User: Fold F-box domain-containing protein from Glycine max.
Amino acid sequence: MLEITTKMPKILLSPTAGGESESPRCHASPVLLEELISNILHRVPVRSLLQFKCVCKSWNSLISDPLFAKDHLCASTADPNMTHQRLLSFTVCDPKIVSFPMHLLLQNPPTPAKPLCSSSLNDSYLILGSCNGLLCLYHIPRCYVALWNPSIRFTSKRLPTGLSPGEGFSTFHGFGYDAVNDKYKLLLAMRVLGETVTKIYTFGADSSCKVIQNLPLDPHPTERLGKFVSGTLNWIAPKMGVSDEKWVICSFDFATETSGQVVLPYGDRDNVCKPVINAVRNCLCVCFFDSRKAHWAVWLMKEYGVQDSWTKLMVIPRFVQEDSWPWKLIPHDELCTCRGFPALEPLCISGNE
Assistant:
């Protein structure tokens, strides 16, 4: 990777007939072609790009282009070494966002990651979700939602929730990007005075908020945060109207603002215990304990919504935690039950899969 600095580029000069160089204005040509410059800038961190906008008018125009921002995002997320990806955490008692570099955690052996304070916020917030490097925050004292870009420390317009401090609580929520309408949206279900009210917030110049009726996510999902995949939010929840414990993935499409369901893998869905879903490599991933085979199974839906695209990635032997650390593998012929077993959540797939 080439290193870009804020120094002005050198100029190649064409020699004149007298052996002396003419003025750079006459025969000046840049060392790098525009296409190559653009290719390099796509690999530069955001904060450096903000400084490079001052280099010249052409760089300012290029970096300010919304299309460049989307291409830069694609280049960052496609990085196999995950050097640009971070794990973010927010604590209510200490109003700051702490980030941890992902690539250090995936090394073998992993390197302890030192937390880096990456926020300039000075109040109490909750993180309601993240997408494309943006965080959706809920301001606890004033009960509004807003987007925050930790790379450039920019906060969007505030959207009030209509609640008062201490009134109501979130039953489920999710944040993501509507690519059809080029909008970032938040789905927020609040339990107020015994009634669930579900609203969808749209951020942007024409920001808005409206109520979503009859969203079939009752009983409530096992986790509040919906996982964003392919323009949809997804929760794992018990299947309605079934006496024995069955599970289904409930989904909400941001573009159409309608709900649906995603069926678990055919082969193992009748033996699912303690399922957990997540977004891994922009795909829906589920991990659950197979009560019949007595192991954990990790599945990846390579094409969202296509049942046949479910692919089993790995099988993990079951283990339990004894009274004393560490975790212990238990024999296969012991009682097959998942009571007391921990739930495993898939986080990511390293480059050495």
